[in-house]
Amino acid sequence: MNISGSKATVIRRGDYQAPSYQVSEIALDVRLDPDNTEVHTRLQLHRIAPEPVAELHLDGESLELLGLQRDGQALAESAYRLTEGGLLLLNPPEAFILESRVRIHPRANTALSGLYHAGGQFLTQCEAEGFRRITYYLDRPDCLARFTVTLHAPQDSCPVLLANGNCMATGVEEGGWHWARWEDPYPKPAYLFAMVAGDLAVVRDRYRTASGREVALEIYVAERDTGACAQAMDSLKHAMRWDEEVYGREYDLNRYMIVATDSFNMGAMENKGLNIFNAKYVLASPETATDSDYQGIESVIAHEYFHNWTGNRVTLRDWFQLSLKEGLTVFRDQEFSADQNSRGVQRIGDVRRLRAAQFPEDAGPLAHPVRPDAYSEINNFYTATVYEKGAELVRMMHTLLGNVPFRKGMDLYFERHDGHAVTIEDFIAAMEDANQRDLSGFRRWYGQAGTPVVRATGSYDPARHSYTLTLHQETPATPGQPVKEAVPIPVRMALLNTQGQRVPLEVVGGASETVLLLEQSEQSWNFANLPGPVIPSLLRGFSAPVRLQDSLDDDAHGFLARHDDDPFNRWESMQDLAVKALLAAVADSSVAPLPITLRNAVAATLADRQVDPAFCAELLTLPGEDYIGEQMPVVAVEAIHRARDGMMRAIGRHFAKEWTGLYHDLAAAYQRDGLSIGRRRLRNLALAYLIAGEGNSREGAILHARQQYIQADNMTDRLAAFQLLAQHRHHDAEDVILDFYQRWHEYPLVIDKWFAIQAAAPYPKTLRQVEHLLVHPAFDWRVPNRVRAVLGAFAANPTVFHAADGSGYTFFAEQIRRLDDINPQTAARLATPLSRWQRYDAPRQQAMVTALKILAGKPGLSRDLAEVIQRSHPE
Ligand code: B3K
Ligand code: ZN
């Protein structure tokens, strides 16, 4: 039992059983109507189990059964049984054709899983288990079948009818309806099925594959958005080229379609040949999208495209293997983005995300291995652990093997498993077999939750001219896994001399960088014949997803912050200096001073004209409040906020002249290249520091911000100014908020930003403001982007969500309760910040647990939310 008083069915990895039947062909015939859609399904089934079975289970959920036939005959009532989760066929013959007719209700489907009708369009989302909400089926990833689908719809409301694969025929029928038949030549699991119908415009382009085949590229959007698809189209073509060049993988159909919608539960979906995307990752124009929106489009378009090989051609045996496609595909999209942009800045961003989302997850009650052992709702496992930590595991194998051997492993993986549903084990085995390497330690990484802590100690022996490095690893216990084993940890490292140059390492034939493999709980290495004293640069490029305690003092970090030639480590040293100063300020409840080492490092960075502006902005951005909280035994909410604010002010004030100089020097007309993006970022950071500072420069900066807000020729600059003006107490904040809404109210993606920025303002009155936002005419509970803009931003607002009186939690729980009736998947995901209650002081703990209990007591609690609550507070 749990605090929600129910016991949900738990699915366990160890219970996997191969299906007893397979479907060779599935033909769907769908008459689309927002209120009553009829789906006629014809399945060709045959037994693959060696012996006859007493019953065959077909999944089905929220379906109204209208008729069932077997081999052309109505099925006798004694031959089947309807169950809670679907349909049982009793004593099925060895091979047969099953026809079913069901009715479903797309408009009422606010869960946005299965077939739904939103914004005038019919759309589907079948991963993970949405197909069973369309028809009775073997809705499991190891059931691969050839799909044909015929869509019927009124011609005026739905001139466009799309599904996976190739369009084979179209026609008109009575009453102003028309139809289209699509066939996908590649057998696929049902989670990759998609269909779309609506009034959509299309932006077309072409791509010629390496072997010379022409592929039609089509992006479907609302008519008025056709001018905002260039970034998506370019990114798609770049991704297609990259996968050919780096992995030798070509696209395999004649047509690649992308559909954009405002109503989507996540970022995008890789349905075979017909990706469906959250409009946020498709639409961009300089006036409406920020630089980071552009980068988001590039990476998500690439991610979904890369799934065509890692996920679709080679798919999953069961959902426990989710990271086999997600971790691997995230690794691929990260590498793609690193090749398109700056590798160092990309890595810093990836690690920032990992630490912001995955480390906390791994340290709390929702911790789970990259390959989980059990779930009750699989949609709850599309987590930072499965995605981001999963990508890190692939990256570590890549680091250990090297580029060419890794590619050999990938080739073998595709060669062996193309067209099959496989496991993480199969992936590791391909890497091992292609290279005669033993990677068995990685099986532990996949099975063990928790973030390893690596402690490094080192000493230089002047008499022997040698440096000894000792590394120790330990993984803290996680729920259900009290005892942890050592895992293989690749530690990329170099030794720097006092001039900041890497010294040759004799043990690796004079190379100046190497990868140490820490496999036991403790190991030591000795570097002999060094030219003089050295400072170690460890875990370069963040070569493993661990917490490193490097036992270096501030002087060493200050040195690395200025001299390390590894961009990640240079950034990391800067962060370490800032975190240390901030923690000291938190400990004595003071405003953070600006310690001399940090001040010198900031000064050196500001003076360094060589450094790329995007990287410079990374170096000068202070760690976020959440990250600082992560470094403390109990998160001191207000003290952290005060300390970080204080440090912003100190850096703003101390370097006011430099910031002002940068702000003016970096002004430029809008361009989209990497250098211009970096310059904008640094310039807006300068503005933020000036506004954080005090006195004249602050007043001047507010004027600059207002001017920038009005005159900006792009959304990056306009939004940066808007955020500073809207989130800082000053007299015309409200006018600016009103003005922004009036300018952009016709652009939902921009209005999401407007909602989010208000919900993120760090003042007590924000709670009231958020109450108003929830009843604003533009707020819509059925649109996940909008709900996330308000409630997601609210829950990420440290001082307001975690207000000492518990008001933030109570309010939040009430909203999640409401959302759960509309969209359980989004409700469950948004609720996860409450799982972190153990990290706070006693009164907050109590208030958070009470909030969880309020949710647990909700009548009709969804399985999604019930699982999150139960795991968050198991007693
Ligand atoms: N595979 C989808 C995510 C599906 C989430 C289902 N709840 C998008 C992606 O990772 O590419
Ligand atoms: Zn994915």
From TrEMBL:
Pfam families reported in the protein's UniProt record: DUF3458, DUF3458_C, Peptidase_M1, Peptidase_M1_N
Cofactor(s) needed by this chain: Zn(2+)
Family: Belongs to the peptidase M1 family.
Keywords of the record: Aminopeptidase, Hydrolase, Metal-binding, Metalloprotease, Protease, Zinc
Domain of life of the source: Bacteria
InterPro entries for the chain: Aminopeptidase_N-like_N, Aminopeptidase_N-like_N_sf, PepN_Ig-like_sf, Peptidase_M1, Peptidase_M1_dom, Peptidase_M1_pepN, Peptidase_M1_pepN_C, Peptidase_M1_pepN_C_sf
Span of domain Aminopeptidase N-like N-terminal: 28-192
A GO term, aspect molecular function: metallopeptidase activity
Ranges for domain Peptidase M1 membrane alanine aminopeptidase: 232-444
Domain Peptidase M1 alanyl aminopeptidase Ig-like fold stretches: 450-550
GO biological process: one example: proteolysis
Listed name of the protein: Aminopeptidase N
Residues in Peptidase M1 alanyl aminopeptidase C-terminal domain copies: 555-872
Catalytic activity: Release of an N-terminal amino acid, Xaa-|-Yaa- from a peptide, amide or arylamide. Xaa is preferably Ala, but may be most amino acids including Pro (slow action). When a terminal hydrophobic residue is followed by a prolyl residue, the two may be released as an intact Xaa-Pro dipeptide
Enzyme nomenclature, EC number: 3.4.11.2
